Amino acid sequence: NTTTLATDIEGYVGCTPMKVYIKGDKVLRVEALENEETPKYFDLMVSKDLLKKWNGMPVKTAEKCKVDAVTGATVSSEAVIENVRRGISYYIYANKKK
Fold it and tell me: From 43, 52, 68, 92, which residue has the greatest number of CB atoms within 10 Å?
């Protein structure tokens, strides 16, 4: 959950927190949490499968993966991409200590 990890990352309207599900060092899925982005543009990202880009990737690959922003929702999608990257980086860092 990037709600507290990425308070400095904003989309077009505000923060775009994500929930990144990881199991066995692989990204299972990414879900959007409540945000203030314009639904029309946020839905465009969802319809273009932006949140599915990391599904099934090993975390080390997903952390460095180059994901393109969605045209027409560039600022919002760049914020989503950075939120996901931040969540994955946190997971990798937290699991190095174990």
Answer: 92
Task: Give CA–CA dist 59/57, Å, rounded.
Answer: 6
E strands in the chain: 18-23, 26-32
Asked if residues 33 and 15 have their Cβ atoms less than 8 Å apart, the reply is no
Do residues 22 and 28 lie in contact, with contact meaning Cβ atoms separated by under 8 Å?
yes
- Report residue 90 as tokens: 């946190």
Dist. CA 83–CA 81, nearest whole Å: 5
Tens digits of residue pLDDT in 18-61: 999 999 999 999 999 999 898 998 899 989 999 999 999 999 99
Model pTM above 0.70: yes
